[in-house]
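Handoff note, outgoing to incoming analyst
You'll be picking up this chain. Sequence as last confirmed:
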Amino acid sequence: MATFTAIDLFSGCGGMTQGLKDAGFEVLGAVEIDHQSVETYTANHQEVPVWITDIRELHPWALMSKLNLAEGDLDLLAGCPPCQGFSTMRTLNGARVVRDPRNDLLAEFQRFVDVLRPKTVMIENVPGLARDSSFEQFCEFMEGVGYKGKHSILNAVDYGVPQRRRRLIYLAGKAGRIPFAEPVQDKLTVRDAIGDLPKAGLSGDPVHDMPERRTASVKALIGRIPKDGGSRTDLPQEDQLDCHIKCNGFKDVYGRMAWGKPAPTITSGCFNPSKGRFLHPVENRAITMREAALLQGFPRDYRFPSTGNKAALAAMIGNALPPQFIRHHAGRILLSLSPNPGVSR
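Most recent structure output, in case you need it:
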């Protein structure tokens, strides 16, 4: 008995695909340009063919032919077009316009919708996309070709992710609007996600054991930050770095996560305490890449490349989609597709 089918565009290292599979979809194929992300993706989703290419150079018919799909056959087309040009940091909270060629990739997603005409569509992205004219044009296109869609800004922490992460999600269906998943009651914390991990450096997991390189002065500063949620602002002025004293913002820099709270947003800078509240709650170090992946909601056995390039690995994890956030909303899409909820076709 076949299951409901999906294709993952801009798949990255597989967060969307993991969430779709956890919800019950069969992911037929994926498209991604970054080779390291594809290496990670294929290590975890070996059964899914990946088109390693610039999506602008790929015709949807190539996927349809390879996957034996006709127009309208696909149940779900999902993706997260690269969105750095719309991010809060890049736009200074909307105070400036950023012209990034990656902003045009929403039009490529639209091109695939136009040819495949899937039964449903899901897009996940940064909240800033909602204010851009390209998204307005996309929504108008979707309505014009018969889809009923809606979007909202939701927080991943409300959907089983141990992290505060505001995201735009757009759901659309040919048969009607699809409701968003209901928030979960119990929020996961940092302790829930990483509290029982073995000691970093001695675990046997290369992703958890990647070493840190810090100057003696920075190590000493980290050691003085109060445990379990403390911040550099808790220190007397003589113990703070000159650059921190002169700057009144970015107060989470050199801050510790708190055991009993969700993590802050995991970003591509999550390996560096100078980029945010990325210090371990009690150990005198930044979170490890395994901890970052778990705080994103990846399974504990999710495989990442054994590479010495921590910055590249952090970027891949920080830019990923939290699988549990996707799972919850993909579950609502499944209900909209199935005449008998919970029953595969």
